[in-house]
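QA checklist item 7 of 12: single-chain prediction sanity check.
[x] sequence parsed
[x] length recorded as 213
[x] structure emitted
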Amino acid sequence: MAGSSMTCSDKLFKVLVIGDLGVGKSSIILRYVKKQFDEGYKSSIGVDFALKTIEWDQRTVVRLQLWDIAGQERFKKMTRVYYKRAMGALVVFDITKSSTLEAALEWKKDLDSKLCLDSGRPVPAVLLANKCDMTGRNRDVVASLDSFCKDNNFLGWFQTSAKENINIDEAGAFLVKQMMLCDAGLSNEEEHCRDRIKVSQPPGESQSQTGCC
């Protein structure tokens, strides 16, 4: 109708990027925000910040405030401050080093013990199995990730590569969708189960979405 104006929504979400030292958190953020990869990118000390703006649809602009939290043990003492008001998390491990998956679980437990949504539910978290372009991927670890995510309240997982730009945007979009659902108050169990995802195919194969409830 002539003269009508479209109502636009501007959403701001704080997103944590957590995981052990050297798993590629900073490189994932650099690829996601600036579409770049730097072989010489240095590990974060303390916490770094990055901003990404997404035109989610014709009526919605989503602004992400990405908090890159250093993986060194000494910074875990300050995570309660870093986590405050976060609405989502990307938890990263190195798919070639199974010990970093154990560390990812410790980060997830730390997150869940210090932060939850107003509804009391865990903050939406997505597990990233990073460096999937490298040789030495542990197939047993990959095969276990569906049950690992279900047992530890991850909404889903993706094999990612910051270097080769594999599933970085897809993982980000999935997390944004989950945060949008929480922001809209769509928090019943059926809705959350229906929107879970797994991405377990090797790089280069077509992406599929599978419910896990």
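[x] summary fact logged: The beta strands are 9-19, 47-57, 60-69, 88-94, 125-130, 156-159, 197-199.
[ ] second reviewer sign-off
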